[in-house]
Amino acid sequence: MFRIGMGQDSHRFAADPARPLLLGGVRVADARGLDGNSDADVVLHALCRALEQALGEDAFSRYADALCAQGVADSREYVKVARSRVEAAGWRVNNVGLTIEARTPKIEPLRVAMKQSVATLVGIAPDAVGINATSGEGMTLMRDFVPHLAAMLEDVVHDDPESTLGWCDDQTEFEFGLDLLLEGIERRRATEAAAAG
Questions:
Q1: Which of 8, 13, 31, 107 lies in the 20 to 30 Å Cα band around 156?
Q2: What is the pTM of this model?
Q3: Residue 93 lies in a domain
Q4: CB 63 within 8 A of CB 185
Q5: Nearest C-alpha neighbor of 88 from the set 161, 167, 154
Q6: Within 13 Å of residue 122, how many CA atoms lie on the same side as its CB?
């Protein structure tokens, strides 16, 4: 059995020309970044929304805001939460399709690195990530960077289409799971700091 989710997110380009641009976990050289409280990786935000929709859920804003409030601005950490929710519910990502609407930057030079990054984050092969892009051909008034993303999930635990997904079904469970994730991030940071020192 399969499930498909669609995700979309958008951010305006930042006023600060020194703000870095991150797309799909890849830093883009010589490009102005997008505005946001996190690193504003709009591709990874759309990916999280697609994974949530495939689960029949919409928790991305809750855990992204909570992590951001804790000082976690790296959108790859948000994808880890989304993936953990997918896998805890008995699914795994089968493939990802991404279409980007933007006049800049050019996506073709970034395609291979973005495919590898997204594939690693969700646990699939790079050839299971498809990326295409459009500039709008002057037919739209796009001022933002807008990705549209679809993710297909494959059932790996249960075959019953009526089964309840059941991961963090209430606010208490959700907050408990988020607390555990934050503790893990802090432990990893402490370990990395100790190793660097």
A1: 8
A2: 0.77
A3: yes
A4: no
A5: 167
A6: 33
CATH of the domain at 30: 3.30.1330.50
* pLDDT tens column, 2-49: 999 999 888 888 899 899 999 999 999 988 899 988 999 999 999 999
Residue 119 to residue 129: CA distance in whole angstroms: 7
d(CA 124, CA 41) in angstroms, rounded, equals 20
Hey, is 50 helix, strand or coil? helix
pLDDT band at 178 (very low <50, low <70, confident <90, very high): low
Question: What is the number of other CB atoms lying within 10 angstroms of the CB of residue 90?
Answer: 16
Structure tokens at 69: 């409030």
Phi-psi region of 123 (alpha: psi -120 to 50; beta: other; left: phi over 0): left
- The answer as to whether 172 is a domain residue is no
The answer as to whether 148 is a domain residue is yes
DSSP classification of residue 128:
G
Q: How many residues does the chain have?
A: 197
Specify the number of domains making up the chain.
1
Please list the residues that pair with 6 across neighbouring strands. Answer: 150
The DSSP annotation for 7-42 comes to EE--EEBPS-TTSPEEETTEEETT---B-SSS---H
